[in-house]
Each structure stands twice: as C-alpha cells, then as structure tokens.
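Hey team,

Filing this mostly as a record. A colleague (T.K.) asked me to run one chain through the structure pipeline before their review meeting, and I want the input and output archived in the tracker in case anyone asks later how it was produced. No errors, nothing strange. Just documentation.

Input sequence:
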Amino acid sequence: MKAIHSIVLVLMFAALLALGNCVESISAEGETIVYRGENVIITACLLQNGTYGDPVQYQIVEFFAESSDDFIGSARTDINGYASIIWDVPNDYPLGSMIMNVTFRGNQSLALLPAYQQMSMLILSSTEIALEVQDYSLAPLDDLCFVVTLVNDLQEPLSGEFVVVTSDSILLANGFTNASGQTYFRIQCNSSWADLGTNIVDVEYSGNLVTFNEDTARSFTITLIKLDTVIEPCVAYPKTVLLNESLILFLEASVSDTVLSDTILNLSIDGHPYDSVVTNESGIVEISIDMDKQYSLGEHVLLVEYLGTERLMHSSFVVEFDVVSFVIVGFNVPNVVLMETMANLDFEVTDIFDRGLPQVSVVVYDPSSGEISTTPIPPNSTLISASIHMTGQKGSRLLVVNITGCSYLVNASFHIRIVVWTQPSLVLIQSNVVGFASPNQGISMHIHLGDKGGNYSDRFVSLNYLNGTVIIASVTNDDGLAILSFSAPEMSTEYFMQVVYEGLNTSYELPTYINYGLTVTEMMPIALNILDYSVIAPLQELYVVLMLHALNGSYLSGIHIVFHWFQSVVCVLSQSQGLVELHLQVPQVDGLYNLSYSTREERSLLSNNGLFILEITSMEIAMVQGVGIPVIASSFCVSLGFVCVPVLKRRYLIG
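Output structure:
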C-alpha cells in the first residue's frame, strides 16, 4: 500500500509544512523529501492580509509541478481556508529536485488578488535489499557467505552503492555493488564478533542523495554451533582382558564426514591420567595397554577424550573392560588319607602375579560321597587349609575344587586325585594266657581283623618277633577271626612280639599291628579276681565269690589265701577251678570297705597281695536289720542268682 505524505502550502506569506504520516529517512536542507510511487497530500491555506490574516473560504486553489509544468490538481478551500489534494507520485517521475507551485488566481468580486506559493521538493527512489545467505547454521571459523542485491523502486539494480555489514554495532565488512546491484561477502565466524548460539547480522545501505536513492537496511540471524566430533572403534574390542596381556583398540576420530588427523587424544584409566596418543593421517589411532601388576582383577574404565577446539566439540569414548586372570593353585595332599577321618588339604591361591585374591573361598566337593567343605581365605593371605570328611567308598577318587567369591577368574575349578585308605584294627579277642607262660606251654590267641565297615576275611595275620621272624600265621574267617596257636619258648625270659597284618593295596587297606609281650617263667604270677559280692539278708552275711588263677591261664585250687575284713582274719583254700567263697560279717552302716588279701609263694607260684573295695548300700543294711519275710526271701533269691551267673560267665571267658 502506498504511503501518503502531507504537505501544507500557505499562500500569502505562508510557509510549506510537512504533516501526516510522512517518515523522513533522508533530509535535504530546505527541501521536503517525497518518494516516487507514493501518495502525497498537498494542503494550501489561503489567508487575507498575510500569514496571520483571516482564512479565505470556498476559493479554488490550483497545484502545479512547476519543474515539469504539470497540472496536478485543484481544490476548494474550506471554512478554515484550507484546500488539499492527493498527488500520486508517478513511478517513473524524474528523480531529483522539483518545484511545487500553488496558485490562487484571485476573485475580483471578493476583492481578492491573485497569489501563489512555491516549495522545493526532492523526489527520491525507495530502495530494497535482497539477501541470498548460503547457510544460516554455521560452526566457529566457518565463512558466512551471502550476496546482497540492492534495487530501486523500479527493481533496477543500483551499482556502485556502498553497503555496510555489522553485528551488534561491530563492523564486519563493507563493499560496493556491481553493475547487477550485487555485492558478495565472505566473513569468518570468529570470536571477535560471533558467539555460540544466535547472532544477528545487519546489512545497511545509507542511501545516496546524489543518485536520489533512499536508505534501507535488512537483518538476518545465523546460528553458531560447534561441530560434533566422534570417537568410535574401527573394529570390535574385547570386553575382557587377561592379566599380563594387552588391551588393544583401534579408534577413529572424525567430524561430520571428515577424519581428524594428527589429533591428540587423552587417555585416562579409572579416573587417573594415563597417556596421550595422536591419530594418523586417516584419523585412526592404535591404543595398546599392558595389563601389568598395577591392575587389579575386576572392572576398569578407559576414557578416550578429545578436548575440542574453538570450532570442534569435545567428545569422548568410554571403554569398560574386565581384567581376568588364571588362578594359580598350589596344593598339598597328605600322603595317607584315611576313611572316616578329616582330610586336611593345604592350598595356596594366587593370580598369575602371585597376588592374593580378596574375599575368595576354597570349596572342596567330593562327588563320590556328596561331602562338601567351604573355607574362606583370610584377608591378606594366600594360604588356607581346608578339611573334608572322608566317607563313602575307599579307593581312588577325584575331588572337585572351586575357587569362589571372584568372578574374574578364567579357571576357577579343577580336580585333585586322592587315594582314600582304610586303617584296619587288630584286636586280641581271647587268649589262654595273660602275658605269662611256662616254658613250652601251648598258647592260643584269637585275633579279630576289621574296621568300621565290617570284618576282613581271607586276610593273612601273623605273629612275629620284632626282628621280623614269623612265629605263626593264619587266615581270617568270614567273621574276621584268626587263631594263632604256638608253643612258648623254652628259655625263661621276656619276649616282645607283634601281631601283624601287612595290608592289601588292591583293597586300599593299610598295614596294622599290635604289640604283644610274653614272659616265659618257671615262677608264675597269680591273680585273684572278684566275681561278685552281695548281702544275704536271711543269713545276715556278706557273700563274696572270687577266682584265683595263674597268669598262664591255669585255675588254682588248694592255695591258701588270707583275707582281712575289719578286725577279722579269714583263711581259705581255693577250690576247684580256682573258685573262692567268703562269708563275711555285714557292716552296721553303709559305705566303702576294704577287703585285703595275700598269698604266699608255693608250688612254683609267686606270692600276691591286693585289695578290693566293696560298697555296702543302705538298702542292704536295712534288709539285714529286719524287713518283711517276702522281701528278704526275694533278696535271697536274687543274691543267689548274682553268685551263680558271674561264676558261669567267668568260666566262659577264661576257660
């Protein structure tokens, strides 16, 4: 829409004024500026008797472009003496200065003389800036390239005109338009004027009064963003690295589609600076890091970092990797592992640099028995002793050993082969002698061979002198019993022997033996053993049954034995089968009482003396001192039973 400018002409000594919506960007001294192609309001004021006279109403006022001698129009004054026309300045009107003439031709009937008024006007062309910006989004140090085209109101290019480029009042560039009205600008986006983010660029044309062109300006906005850089692997890299080996990476640094050659990349491991590397001409760098003693087992983080520049963004690449190790386990197994015992296994557990592994345990598992043992390794130690119960079958077996508590071990499980033996036991069940024998006396020994698992049959058991000479040998029966029968030596002295089982490797049975001492003598020691004693209430007596025998197994009859009981001395002779019976006074009170005895040397028998301690209870005292007949009778029967049974039993044991 065309702008309308107002111009006031005062006739009869009036001044020309600019009114209305006129926006003046160019001023010429003494001249009013009008732009071609716009509407101009021209107003004249007709006054009587000069500038400050009375207004002249309803008179015709004519307007002329005096420079071109063109009639523009006419208007009648209003009650205030004003007459106005609108002049549509032609688009092709000549540029430059022109004279506007306002004429009042007079009115004789009203006695008004003719009058006119002139005003100098400057006709200018409006101008326009067209912009062709190559890129509105740039990076620091990029060139901002754009073309400015300057044209007039007829869209004709304006050549030789001066154009200025600024940003925030900072002069960036200037230049003159060419014949096509264009000028080309290339401005580097550096920190002297451009900041990261948005920047406003102003293009200004100050106008030209010589060529009658209006001033004009145009702005545009550019965005300054650093270029994104990328660090990425060329090939896949390992997520786990073996201790004492190397982590090898091939990385490429680039920006957009361009590699970053001869670029420094900083390396840090677990937050600590490590090294710096430089990319080659292809933007690629090889990184090799030795996993030596400074690295512990577990998770580690490698940070590859490009610090960036004024133009390029900072970037980084994170490599998370685990350092793992073979576990080195030294172990010591006992030479002999026995069934039904705790096997103690000594272990030393380290990584390949002989370092301890924190918070780990040694788990020993026996698949053959299901037994399992878990033993933690103490802090700051590599040594541990683990124990596991040996059950199940004897023989060779594999133990599974697991190192737990550390997930960064390559070989956390292995096997140990052990041989589990059984330790048989030899037991002297019965013998006709008790360590003593007469010269050439026949001796019989009943030997049992077995273990907790049962009896050993078909095994050789021998009686040997200590020098290894075999005296007699026998084979065990299904009950594991072997009978060794032999004659005592003729010479009277002490003999030391061993009952020997040599073991059986095919059955994983260890050797075993028992020592046996035998004294051959003409003078035989004797032994008096108490079989039983009881209070017989009806008879008010203490009945004691004993047995006298020689240590070569013979029962002794007709041997004098002297007993001392309280103040009494009792002399008795041993009966058949060495049986001795005593009928003693019952004490008045309960308690422990001594029964001593002695024999004298006679018939190749050595003397002997000794002491028995008998306990008399309050119940027994009460029975003697008087209770009901049924109770006494019952007590008598029980006492007789106690006398008979031990005698029979003793005969079985030593007969």
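Quick notes for T.K.: Residues 12-29, 628-655 have pLDDT under 50 and may be disordered. The radius of gyration is 68 Å.
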